[in-house]
Amino acid sequence: MGAKGTRADVPPSAHFVHDEDEGELAIDGMGLSTIAEEVGTPAHVYSASAIERAYRAIDASLAPAKHMVCYAMKANGHPEILRLLASLGAGADVVSGGELYWALAAGIPPERIVFSGVGKSDAEIAYALDAGIRAIHVESEPEIDVIEAIAREKGVTARIALRVNPDVDPVTHPYIATGIHGTKFGLELDVARRLLPRIVESDGLELEGIACHIGSQIGGAKPLEDAVAIVAAFAKECAEAGAPIRALDAGGGWPIHYGDEDAPYAPWNAFGAAIRAGIERGGASDLDLEIVVEPGRAMVGDAGGILTRVLYVKEQGTKRFVIVDAAMTELLRPSLYGAYHAIVPVRAREGDVTAADIVGPVCETGDFLALDRPLPPVQRGDLLLIRSTGAYGAAMATRYNARPLAAEVIVEGDAYRVIRERERVEDLYPRGA
Ligand SMILES: Cc1ncc(COP(=O)(O)O)c(C=O)c1O
Ligand SMILES: N[C@@H](CCCC[NH3+])C(=O)O
């Protein structure tokens, strides 16, 4: 994502660190080979302390403004991660009835949950209204009709926010740009403007916020500021038209360092500051809006890695294939977006660094974790760590090729806990077959 490179260096973090005494990589002081031996590979490993640090840093970046951090749980909806974030005070951004169910089950209060998505079913809208969530984010004109009708039927007022498309380039991979014209997300500003009078007059709707989400892994804080300035100016128009606007939701998209960036991203403080600056530029400072943000990747991405073992090293002509037991089934991002993830041996061997394709066992040419990647010598049985996979790793896992879902473990303090047992082949057999 962003500029693709072939650098072998690793993004900085405080939790995956080389343990000099043991001569291997450790996560929060726990040797990765111990985890691999006990749990097997491939396995997703997460650092609870890293998740907590990320949450606190994002939260602090928005202070002193009134704000709410709604974790975009699509990045990693594991119940233990949700519970951890709930205990720290996070809300949630959900995109389905299933995610809403999991967020509530993890103890996230309904008034801290927002519901985004272009295709909410009637049942999902009814569920959100029954649960009394903070706001349903409206993404199309017909969706407003449906929400209004369901609210009327129930005799309730639906709290909504309009997700507008500010047409700002987020400087990211085209598959995950969401706030430019031509994508399916959000309402064009002129449509939102046209709908305003009927929303304000409706007794079934309460327009409590304006939202945007310009994309994921955005290329800097400036596009966020530009988008927020547009959204804030529209929030002001809505308030002047009589809507009880109390929130500006700036979406998520805060980037992490994967290791192939040409230049480091601005620190998260800059993203919080950009949102505050955007509100001022949009002339909405006097509205005293609560800032809502929906980061997913930034909360969990760097906290996780995938442990994988080398199955075979295959030399073919000038090519070196390192075939490992993880695949696109555990990490789809390289296959789907050509995304870069740093991959490092848990125990480094001496020798020349040469290029290798690091690939999985899945029967697809596109099943690769890295192409032409500089890598020191590795042998069958060696452990590798794939970095920065806490977001959109396990969350996008599939069982393609009848591959059971991998184990997941979380390190808390000086111990680790298995939070998903490795599936067994029997678990894959279709129910009802
Ligand atoms: C509406 C919405 N909010 C938040 C996010 C989270 O994005 P990220 O993980 O990049 O922070 C997404 C995904 O792009 C999204 O669609
Ligand atoms: N799955 C994407 C991000 C999707 C963002 C959701 N709107 C990724 O791995 O980067």
Note the main attributes of this structure:
binds lysine; 433 residues; alpha/beta; Lyase, Ornithine Decarboxylase, Chain A, domain 1; eight-stranded parallel beta barrel; binds pyridoxal-5'-phosphate; 11 helices; nine-stranded mixed sheet; TIM Barrel; disordered N terminus
Q: Outline of this structure?
A:
By secondary structure, this protein is α/β, with parallel strands linked by helices. It has helices at residues 32-39, 48-62, 79-88, 97-105, 122-131, 141-154, 189-201, 221-240, 268-281, 297-300, 333-337, and strands spanning 16-19, 24-27, 30-31, 43-47, 67-72, 91-94, 113-115, 135-138, 158-165, 187-188, 205-211, 247-249, 290-293, 304-316, 319-324, 343-345, 354-359, 368-375, 383-386, 407-412, 415-420. The chain folds into two domains: 16-47 and 302-428, Beta Barrel (Lyase, Ornithine Decarboxylase, Chain A, domain 1), CATH 2.40.37; 48-299, Alanine racemase (TIM Barrel, Alpha-Beta Barrel), CATH 3.20.20.
What does this structure look like?
There is one protein chain. With 433 residues, this protein is α/β, with parallel strands linked by helices. The protein has 2 domains: 16-47 and 302-428, Lyase, Ornithine Decarboxylase, Chain A, domain 1 (Beta Barrel); 48-299, Alanine racemase (TIM Barrel). It contains 11 helices and 21 strands. It has helices at 32-39, 48-62, 79-88, 97-105, 122-131, 141-154, 189-201, 221-240, 268-281, 297-300, 333-337, and strands at 16-19, 24-27, 30-31, 43-47, 67-72, 91-94, 113-115, 135-138, 158-165, 187-188, 205-211, 247-249, 290-293, 304-316, 319-324, 343-345, 354-359, 368-375, 383-386, 407-412, 415-420. Strands 4, 14, 15, 16, 17, 18, 19, 20 and 21 form a 9-stranded mixed β-sheet that branches. Strand 8, helix 6 and strand 9 (158-165) form a beta-alpha-beta unit. The longest helix has 20 residues, at 221-240. The radius of gyration is 23 Å and the shape is elongated. The two termini are 40 Å apart. The relative contact order is 0.17. The model is unreliable at 1-10 (pLDDT under 50). Pyridoxal-5'-phosphate is lined by residues 72, 75, 93, 116, 178, 213, 216-217, 251-254, 294-298, 391. It is an enzyme of class 4 (lyase). Its EC number is 4.1.1.20. Pathway: Amino-acid biosynthesis; L-lysine biosynthesis via DAP pathway; L-lysine from DL-2,6-diaminopimelate: step 1/1.
